[in-house]
Sequence to fold (544 residues):
Amino acid sequence: MERRLLIAVTLMVAVLVVPSLFRKPAPRRVGARADSTAPRAGRATQAPAAGTADSVAASVVSTQPVPATADTASVVGSQAIYRLTSVGAAIDRAVFPHLRNFHPHDTGAANIVRPGDRLLVTRLLVRGDTVRFDSVPFAIEERRGGVRMRGQAGPVVQTVAVSPVAERPFLLEVQGTIEGLEGRGATLVVGLGTGFANVEADSNDNYRQYAVAARRNGVENTNFRSVDAGAVEALEGPFDWVAVKSKYFMGALLSTDSTQPQLGGALLIGGPRPSRTATHAATWVTMPVGPDGRYRYRLYLGPKQHRVLHPMGRDLDVASPYGWIFRPIVMPVANWITSFFMWTHENLRLSYGMVLVVFGVLVRLLLWPLNQKAMKSQVAMMAVQPILKDIQTRYKNDPQKLQSETMRVYKEHSVNPLGGCLPLLLPMPILLALFFVFANTIELRGTPFLWLPDLSLRDPLFITPLVMGLTMFGLSKLSQVGMPPNPQAKMMTVFMPIMMTVLFLNFASGLNLYYAVSNLVSLPQQWLINKSRAAEMSRRQVTS
Fold:
């Protein structure tokens, strides 16, 4: 049973993980192509004074003008520097001094705003007319503690103030006023850019995760790859927040009050596709402006760090859900593992590679009592096999009697038929959670260990997956010592390590390191289990 369960669980992981690396999400078509002959875009649910998706789409599908030479000012947070350009009063640089740029053709600190792209450009919809502030030169009126700018487009004047939020790294407060509305409401359309600059060594994986997330009753995700070039997709609100995200970074517009969602909807406009994986999509978010001309929202622009996002609430820490159907188990386990890694790294001053080694040893030590108990259950099952075979022969035509007699034998001999399965089941959520930890945890991004340049990427020399496969083979061989001959088990002893090695070749080197360490620690444990099993079998007079 244990071996069949191991095969089933392993194949299940293989079937789930491998397709996710290549699968293209099914498109969620709500809108239409952005041209004059195509059908109109879908209609978004309106907040007060919010425009329709049709009118918003018409106002933003046109190409933005190239900004002229502009003055700049910076908003400096505790862990980020945001530069605003006077053309459009928009963010054109977001630099994180403590995070490296790992792109092969770039160096230095990570700047996630694409060259030529801008965030927080605005357009205003007033009674069907569009007032474009994205190309308006704003005058910088304040630079200390924040930035305040003022710009005019015809009779309409906009003032924008951007400042950091105290004790909330990567969070900005944005307040604005619109003059010239003459007591009329309007709809503000805010741009979130076309996706972030690639600052990762693995650009394909980064592009695959370009998406928009939005929170209404729950968190909804739309991948950029589902929006064809030139097409428009409308996301119906109202939303509490709307975020553009890459593998490790996120830019989110947040309502000022989570109980009163103020974002009317969002539009995604498909951009050019330089390659199969490199996709662009311009994202625009709508919000109402009242008759007083005032508006206010917050912007989170920074890394997807659980310890930063979780205290903010509002499900921002699950903007990138993972774990498939196992999500309720995988995400809590992954968060716990990440917290353990960070605590050990920061308090014991260990490298993340050594933390992985320690974690692999600890998991196996904690499972040792369960392995011993599983061994005893296995021997007990072997002891009652002759009795069970006799029962199966006698009651083969009476399923109900066969079941009752089988349960009686289990009870009389204190046998738990599932007792040997638990030690095999417990490591699987940990292994699955670790897969996502290395795929999503920015703290492990670019972390070297020994010959491994980055624990979140594959081993360039394929040493760790090969060691993992060899130790798995040795562990399987050792577990067969003293057991009755089993041709199926003998075949799986060779097949499973080969399959797992091939499967893990392109997985994160940190995941392979953990698995290899776990197997190495299991070898002496298995030897001790073999000795205990021989003694137990002798005591129960079990013959092989």
Remarks:
- The first strand starts at residue 32 and ends at 33.
- The chain has two domains: 2-16+336-539, 31-63+118-136+150-311.
